[in-house]
Amino acid sequence: MTTRMNRIQDPLSLAEAAKQRLIGSAMRRRISGYTLAAGLVFAAFVIRLALSHSLGVNAPFLFFLPTVVIAAAVGGFSPGLLAALLGFVGGMVFVPLYDGVDFAEGVNVAAYWGICVLLAWFGQRLHSAQERAKTRADELAAREANLRSILETVPDAMVIAGEHGVIESFSRTAEQLFGYAAEEVVGRSVSILMPSVVRGEHDSYIQRYLATGRRHVIGKGKTVTAERKDGSIFPIELVVGEVASGDMRFFTGFIRDLTERRKDEARMQELQAELVHVSRLSAMGEMASSLAHEVNQPLSAIVNYLSGARRLLSDPSMKNLPLIETAFKDAADQALRAGDIIRRLRQFVSRGKVVHQGDSLSEIVGDAVGLVLVGSHGQNVALRIDPLADRVVCDRIQVQQVLVNLMRNAIEAMQGSDRKELAVASTPAQRDMVEVSVSDTGPGLPEDVAQRLFEPFVTSKPTGMGVGLSICRTIVESHGGRIWSEQRPEGGCVFRFTLPQESC
Ligand code: ADP
User: Fold this and answer.
1) Whose CA is nearest to atom 25 of ligand 1?
2) Both 314 and 176 in a single domain?
3) What are the start-end ranges of the H helices in 51-187?
4) Which end of the chain has fewer CB atoms at under 10 Å, N or C?
5) 208 and 329 part of one domain
6) Cβ(458) to ligand 1 under 6 A?
7) 151, 173, 188: which is the final residue of a domain?
């Protein structure tokens, strides 16, 4: 198994080549059988000739009989018959024909031919048995070469271990992956490929499996860690198969390096987080003028209250004191209102770490509504948060972002509608989840968009980006929930998503 195959070969062409090789070698053996028959008969003739003095006319054919069986065994029935024929011709040289063929000679010839046919048949059987054994050996060799070429070229590393976890074979990809040469590891325990902390456990796994027959890893893919020769530890996906050969059992491990995949996943997560953040910034950018206006209102009010108070202070009589106090209190309330808007805004656009923690849905929804309703006068939102579905585990800002996206879409959709009813509700859902819904009375989802709603860049708006809902899905799924939409029978649509409920 450890032999190297340098060229990548197509398994089909390999099989065809092996078949051609088998046919070629059968032909060669037949031709060499004829040549052998002639050679052996010649040798037998020479020996018989040499013994002519002692034997006289006796046993003219005897020396040719072994040539028949040898030629048939090597080349098959036809070379055997050729040897018989040539032997007959050679043997006739020693038969005295000058006084005609007597009965005994006739019996001799008949016996010769009878024995020859029998010997040729027997040799042929030997030959066939040999052929079959050779063919089987060649086929096995071809199959092993095929298997080897496939195994050496599959992208996964492969390690075969015996019943006691001793490595029997170590593929080339495994050599590259672990940094060991096959010769270094064959004959050692597979546990050397595992981090030292789990090495002890591994042997007990095998023993337990052999004793109980209960499978833990066999037949299933599992993500585990492995250790390279240089001691570095890396993540792998391991699939173990089992092969029984006679009373021996082997374990075949297919190993895929997950290092790159993990890096890619981490990079994807970074990019997603960046996109989620950028989309929040962009949403706020779009709302910037409304926000400026919203902050301006309390500021103007503060200015008015303070100017009034100053005027009242120019006549600091006792009767003005309660008025001045009220003006200061109102100014302070307005300052708090402006501060509240700024706080929500700052939190919303911050690039804080994503933290999943227990939180109150009504507070999250309240803040999101506060942001969305800035500037959209005349729009009311009905909030129906079930107290049994209030505590959730989530990243507050990200869930606000989902709500802001859904509510802004709803408000935009209802712009041309007579009824403008936006509602945010929550109810307990199955499997310890909370279902949040955002419903509107707009025209409902455009048909062409509905099928691909959560895919990026799907939009029906002339200036829309079409990323809002895809970001909502990313956020909801990263919380272990799901998001979907439904058309409402009475008109408009409802978006629903689930979040994990905080356990009491
Ligand atoms: P964008 O708002 O930039 O178009 P979204 O991903 O947020 O991107 O929305 C994609 C599309 O889904 C919208 O263009 C719109 O056609 C449709 N859509 C989303 N919410 C609603 C809604 N409440 N009512 C009707 N259509 C909606």
Assistant:
1) 445
2) no
3) 52-55, 65-75, 77-92, 103-153, 172-178, 182-185
4) C
5) no
6) yes
7) 151
Q: Give the range of the structural domain holding residue 65, as residue numbers without chain letter.
A: 2-151
Q: Is 461 in the pocket of ligand 1 (CB under 6 A)?
A: yes
Residue whose CA is at the smallest distance from ligand 1 atom 8: 466
401 in contact with ligand 1, CB cutoff 6 A:
no
Q: Indicate whether 68 and 210 sit together in one domain.
A: no
Q: How many domains does the chain have?
A: 3
Q: Please name the residues in contact with 401: beta carbons below 8 A apart, sequence gap of 6 or more.
A: 276, 279, 280, 283, 348, 471, 472, 475
Nearest alpha-carbon partner for 405 in 498, 499, 476: 476
Domain shared by 330 and 463, yes or no:
yes
Distance 362 CA to ligand 1 centre (A): 24
C-alpha–C-alpha distance, residues 330 and 324, integer Å: 10
Nearest CA to ligand 1 atom 14: 459
Please work out whether the CB of residue 442 comes within 6 Å of at least one atom of ligand 1: yes
What distance in Å separates the CA atoms of residue 78 and residue 86, rounded to the nearest whole number?
Answer: 12
Give me the CATH number covering residue 448: 3.30.565.10
471 close to ligand 1 (CB < 6 Angstrom): no
Q: Which atom, in ligand 1's list, is nearest to the CA of 442? A: 24
Angle, in degrees to the nearest 10, between helices 103-153 and 77-92:
150
Q: What is the pTM of this model?
A: 0.52
Please give the number of the atom of ligand 1 that sits closest to the Cα of 405. 7
Do 62 and 172 share a structural domain?
A: no
Q: How far is residue 373's CA from residue 393's CA, in Å, rounded to a whole number?
A: 25
- Considering the domain architecture, whether residues 89 and 78 belong to the same structural domain is answered as yes
CATH of the domain at 247: 3.30.450.20
Task: State the DSSP code for 455.
Answer: S
Per-residue pLDDT of the chain (504 residues; tens, 9 = 90+): 433 433 444 545 555 665 666 666 667 766 788 999 999 999 999 999 998 888 887 888 888 999 998 988 888 888 899 999 999 999 888 887 766 667 777 888 888 899 999 988 988 888 889 888 988 888 888 888 777 777 677 778 889 888 888 998 888 889 999 999 989 999 998 989 988 877 766 666 766 776 776 666 676 778 888 999 998 989 898 888 887 777 778 888 889 988 888 888 888 777 777 777 787 777 777 777 767 777 887 888 899 999 988 988 887 777 888 888 889 999 998 898 888 878 877 777 777 777 788 999 999 998 888 888 776 666 778 889 889 999 999 988 889 889 988 998 999 899 888 888 999 999 999 989 999 999 999 999 988 888 888 887 888 888 777 888 988 998 899 899 999 999 998 889 999 999 999 987
Of 379, 415, 469, 483, the one to substitute when testing ligand 1's pocket (max ligand atoms within 8 A of C-beta) is 469
* Cβ 464 under 6 angstroms from ligand 1: yes
Is the C-beta atom of 468 inside 6 A of ligand 1? yes
Q: Assess whether the C-beta atom of 437 lies below 6 angstroms from ligand 1.
A: no
Give the 3-state secondary structure of residue 394: strand
Calculate the alpha carbon distances from 471 to 180, 467, 503 in Å: 45, 6, 27
Tell me the C-alpha distance between 24 and 12, whole Å: 18
